[in-house]
Description:
The chain has 556 residues and is an alpha+beta fold. The protein has three domains: 4-64, Beta-grasp domain (Ubiquitin-like (UB roll), Roll); 70-229, Threonyl-trna Synthetase, Chain A, domain 2 (Threonyl-tRNA Synthetase, Chain A, domain 2), CATH 3.30.980.10; 231-550, Rossmann fold, CATH 3.40.50.300. Helices cover 36% and strands 19% of the residues. It contains 15 helices and 23 strands. The chain has a five-stranded mixed beta sheet with strand order 2-1-5-3-4, sandwiched between helices. Strand 1 (4-8) and strand 2 (14-18) form a beta hairpin. Helix 8 crosses helix 9 (305-318). The mean pLDDT is 94.
Amino acid sequence: MQEYIKVTFPDGLEKEYPKGIKLINIAKDFQHQHRLEILGAIVNNELKELWKELLQDSEVEFIDRSTPYGHRFYSRSLAFLFIIAAKEVFKGCKVTVEHSLSKGFYCEVHKNSDSSITLTEEDVKKIEEKMQQLVRMELPFEKTRMDNEAAEELFRKTGQYDKIALLKYREKKYMNVYSCYGYYDYFYGYMVPSTAYLRTFELRFYSPGMILRFPEKSNPEVIPEFVEQKKLFNIFREFEKWGRILEIENVSHLNDAIVENRFKDLINVAEALHEKKIAQIADLIANSPEKKKLVLIAGPSSSGKTTFAQRLSVQLKVNGLRPISISIDDYFKNREDTPLDEHGEFDFETVEAIDIDTFNEVMSKLIKGELVEVPTYNFHKGMREWTGKKLKIDEDQIIIIEGIHGLNEVLTQDIPKEKKFKVYISALTHLSIDNHNRIPTSDLRLIRRIVRDFQFRGTDALSTIKRWDSVRRGEDRFIYPFQEEADVMFNSSLVYELCVLKKVALPQLIKIKNDVPEYIEAKRLVKFLNYFLPVDAEGIPNNSILQEFLGQSCFF
């Protein structure tokens, strides 16, 4: 006799379905409620693919491209589609999915072992046409659980040696392998059911590779306007060069360095590369033909802005300058004058929360060498106070200002451009899990923030994850649109850091239970960190940017 299970949906609706029914069949009953195609589901607070069978009473919520989870399903599946198409067009080629760029993934296709043979715009068009053809064929993405030995044999046959190296340090005795159109691959996360779900994308030639572009979750039906990010691309290329210097290009290489007792040397070289770059930036400022008086430092959360500002100050002193720091926070408008956000709450992140006229008046007078009274913001009272504190800067002094709006010309609209030097800082890792699984820079910053919040702010990982989407929205509004305005970019990522951060972050993430929505993200981060072998913080210098999060910094 047919058994039935009860399925409960977010609006409280309960329906009975035959035991063993696949989610894709239930989704057909609810597709009319979704503007976009359903891509997956949350079942009893666990992410599931649509091919999953339900064997017990369950709570089910369907997800589409407008959700963070659905967006990942889509972009990950699209990457696999791209890889298959590239390998179809250029038999035996090597494909790498490298990093985010211009609202997409920057990728490279090496047609053969001769690296001097580069791709052309026509080559990229052929790959895009093949992708479109594969979408029309509605090919299924099939998942098979293999023990590690079988997976290794498969990857050896297909020449995917980067995945064999990954297996060497894998804790689990099995791995899920995806197949489509005769191609096999491993992906860190879930897939849509078939290529038919992947209709919206663009492949844009960007020498020496291409950008795989797709809609953002905030506007999931439209491919965003292309905005070139030359400076950001160049900083990624620089970090790739550092990776080659360090001989660390993926997680397996990093784990090898730990096992082979090369980790301390890795720390020393990575930190030396940071110091060299900071010194070069200080030289640019000090030797500029136009005498700079204002250094503005901006970047997303957990980029290490504060430590960078301190280390830059040291290097400016080496160049004979005497930097002073000024906080933008002291120029917040009084609480009653602060603009409101769409929820009717005070919006402290917008540039309009700052008294721009007063800030520019004070900065202009300081740059001219005048004696100026400067304010202090009383956060308890929610108002700016003038207490008679005065400031004057000499000829050899330079002002350093750190804050999220530093690159926005509105903040310093009255200051001549030739007097300003803008620095964008972010943790832009080139490190990947393997050739086809990139590490999002936002994941690195989130783990940094989890560690810092736990150690210094008494905040648990659950609370940090809860706030993260709001933090990211603020970055999208106030930081990323202006990053190409920077005179120079600094990559604060350290190739070794996730091995060290793991020891603090992992125990906090494991504490997050299945009864909260943030469990899904916590589980994903636990899986991510388990690719890395853990290492103690011993040997990390006390002026390292990483110490801003670990707590042994000489600057605080």
